[in-house]
Amino acid sequence: MTLLAYSPRTANETLCLEYIMNQQNLSRADLATLTGLTKATVSGIIKKLIEDQLVIETGIGESSNVGGRKPINLQFNGQAGLSIAIDVGYNYVNGLLSYLDGEEIAIIQEKPIPLNEDTIQTYFQEIFNTFSKVAPETVYGVVGVVIAVHGPVFHGDILFTPHYNLDQIPFRQIAESLTDYPVYFENEANLSALGEYSFTSTSSSLICVNMHSGIGSGIVQNGHLQVGSHGVAGEIGHQIVVLDGTPCRCGNHGCLEMYAANKVCFEHFATIKAMEYVNAIILREYYRNQDADALAVVAENVRYLSIGINNLIAHYDPKVIVLNSSLYREIPEMIALLQDSLHSHFAKKVILRNSHLQEKATLLGGLVLNLQHFLAIEQVRFTETNS
Ligand SMILES: [Zn+2]
């Protein structure tokens, strides 16, 4: 249930909102200084944002040395509405219902599951039903549904999903038929990058490399996702690392993800050991015991991925590269091995680290995208921490 209807924001409103969201403890006077707007204009905007319940006053700010009236701080009302984000993997569906500040209300994780036109409808219906039962009353209700797709997406259209057939079914119509809320599609690695950028980093540029059955990356610069002219920027899994190598679903031969994806690494180890199934936890146990095959598989993964990361640095010169991979999380020593394999001078200043948000990175990125659409803002920052 919603109490207020959405109203479009003026440019000055979004400017003030961005500053309030991204910096703690701002007063009206601070805002006037930062935005260059007059104090009267800022006061008018804040009055409207408070009436719209998007901004709240948070008591008395720091007392000024010269005395006078103490300023009142302004804060984004993160509980003004709700967000739904759904991550559709090749054998899983995760859903997050949260407040606009990322506070979790409910999370659904279905895995492993078969995904096709029939089952996806069932899982989506289940997610919407469950969330509608537990959704608290807020001013704006659910502001949007963001669906993460494992494949390139351009202007909301799914271009290619090599790991399942979502590009072959009317996925948008299915999703929109199940909910009245606005539905947005985005690539999962792009959303992970947005999530890490907004929740774990203060860097102006960040690249998030997601490794599952394939390898993709999301590139964020100054709050903007860099998607390229056709939506395939950051598809680093499809850079060629082996001449005349293994055929890839994209049409090329020798793509990075055919050699360095988690799934490839697990399957390779399973074949060596004649095992049915291997995941990051199983491989980690062999690695901890100094199993020669595990050490070799890990070294090979690092060697191939280092080529990909080296190329990424040469192309984009990011400040931070975040890895989102169960393999690198379970065996964090692989980060140091990877760093040691980057011999270029270009790579020396780049911070390489594991994801802090882990499996929630994509879902929280979905929340950020919902916020960007709902408030018409670009920069969303919830953290003051470094790197
Ligand atoms: Zn490829």
UniProtKB/TrEMBL annotation:
Q: Which family does it belong to?
A: Belongs to the ROK (NagC/XylR) family.
Q: What does this protein do?
A: Transcriptional repressor of xylose-utilizing enzymes.
Tell me which Pfam families the record gives. Answer: MarR_2, ROK
* Protein name (record): HTH marR-type domain-containing protein
Which residue ranges does the record assign to the HTH marR-type domain?
A: 10-56
The alphabetical list of record keywords is: Carbohydrate metabolism, Xylose metabolism
The record's Gene Ontology biological-process terms are: D-xylose metabolic process
Q: Name one GO molecular function term.
A: DNA-binding transcription factor activity
Q: Source species, please?
A: Enterococcus asini ATCC 700915
